[in-house]
């Protein structure tokens, strides 16, 4: 994600939970759990293995930094995630009638 502050997945989910008034939490899973789940759902094993390896590299923390790409591209400061979460919640993005259920 891009924005004016670094944000973990857990913090993003906490902000969504706050704006929708629901007790949802981020639960990290291991690479093995991710891989197994994909294969169990019918994803090709080679593809699932490669995607898992990619996520391991991308999500290992080395990419956690702030940049100015959004500001340079849009010529404005990026919006904060909390603003996005409020706006999206107001438009019904996370209500129980959406395609995925919050549990």
Descriptive terms for the model:
103 residues; 5 helices; globular; 0% strand; disordered C terminus; mainly alpha
Your description of this structure?
The protein is 50% helix and 0% strand. With 103 residues, it is mainly α. Helix 1 (9-20) packs parallel to helix 5 and helix 2 (31-40) runs antiparallel to helix 3 (45-58). The protein is globular, with a radius of gyration of 16 Å.
Protein topology:
Layout: H1 9-20, H2 31-40, H3 45-58, H4 69-74, H5 81-90
Helix pairs in contact: 1-5, 2-3
Largest sheet: none
Q: How many DSSP E strands?
A: 0
Structural class: mainly alpha
In N-to-C order, the SSE pattern is: HHHHH
Which range best describes the helical content: under 10%, 10-25%, 25-40%, 40-55%, 55-70% or over 70%?
40-55%
Query: Which shape, going by the Cα principal axes?
Result: globular
Kindly estimate the percentage of residues that lie in beta strands according to DSSP: under 5%
The chain-level mean pLDDT equals 89
Rg from Cα: 16 Å
Poorly predicted runs of 5 or more residues: 99-103
Distance between the termini: 23 Å
Number of helices: 5
């Amino acid at each position: 994600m891009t924005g004016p502050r670094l944000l973990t997945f857990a913090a993003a989910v906490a902000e969504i939970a706050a704006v929708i008034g629901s007790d949802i939490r981020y639960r990290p899973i291991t690479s093995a759990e991710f891989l197994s789940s994909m294969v169990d759902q019918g994803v090709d094993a080679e593809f699932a293995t490669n995607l898992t390896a990619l996520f391991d590299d991308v999500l290992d923390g080395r990419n956690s930094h702030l940049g100015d790409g959004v500001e340079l591209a849009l010529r404005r400061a990026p919006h904060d995630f909390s603003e996005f979460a409020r706006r999206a919640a107001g438009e019904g993005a996370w209500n129980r009638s959406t395609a995925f259920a919050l549990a």
